[in-house]
Hints:
Elements (H helix, E strand, L loop, with lengths): L3 H24 L1 H8 L3 H25 L5 H21 L3 H29 L2 H33 L1 H22 L12 H5 L5 H22 L1 H8 L7 H24 L2 H5 L17 H6 L9 H7 L11
Amino acid sequence: MKTFKVQSFILISIGFILGMSEFIIVGIINDLANSFHVGISAIGFLVTLFAIVYAITTPVLSMLVGKHRLNRVMLGLLIIFIISNVLTAVATSYFLLALSRILNAVVAGIMVSIAITFAAVIAPLQKRAWLISWVFSGYSIASVFGVPIGTWISDQVGWRVAFWLIVVISVIIAIMFTLSLPSDLTQGATTGLLDQLQLFKDKRILLGILLPVLNLGGVYVVYTYLRPIVTGGLHFPNAFVTPFLFIFGLASLFSNQFSGRLANGNGLKSIGVGVCYSGSHPNGIKLCVCNALARPGLPLFSWNDNVFTQLADADVLPGGC
């Protein structure tokens, strides 16, 4: 259970289940609106709410982790994550649904950071960037398979069953994580939030934030409302939603891998962008406010993931993040 391949699979699975839980809203937005008797825009607001909570809480929780064992912290976060999806599955009101999504967003960002930290520790140096890139790609894999499957389940037997599936998969991942990943790993010393905010004085950081913010802002307008666009705007039947989501996610996965090849060809230096990512060093989680603000979710049709991967083995900024 403690081989590198098994450990890698578990960390990638964490990225996958986080992505599936976060983005399944896209495929079932109409079903949720009908179930809770609210407009589609009200359900779309949950995506915005998720991103805001994600951006605010991730840096704060990264500091609160302190020197606690990351194995125990991750297990606790996985339990909260499971509870949030159970609340979503049993929600009887829009308020409870929103509360469950907030709870989900609170733990999602720090779970990614800890997963990246584990990846940096367990992987040999020559495979570190590879594993980190695949942990990120768990989100892309979720968009290719998880979201379309969840949407199909919603169409066949109801959207609540899709969240129960997420709960079951999450429980399995939690058990495997507990049995397989190192139990004595802790993060290094962290700096205060005010010190982290000093990053914004660096123009490279501001540019590194601006590019994914504009990119994600443009993509999510379409992606979040893809189902009503396909069925209402383009007048395709509901049966076309799952294939559309699959193609959209497949393009995302392909573009991440293709852009990674471009980035490997001295891509970062050629565009002169400095970005940082939390957990890129094996000695602990490096708190990066810029990452939480710039990347509240999956970067579709972008090179963002590969920028972070490029920095897994190199300090772009003096002293790292």
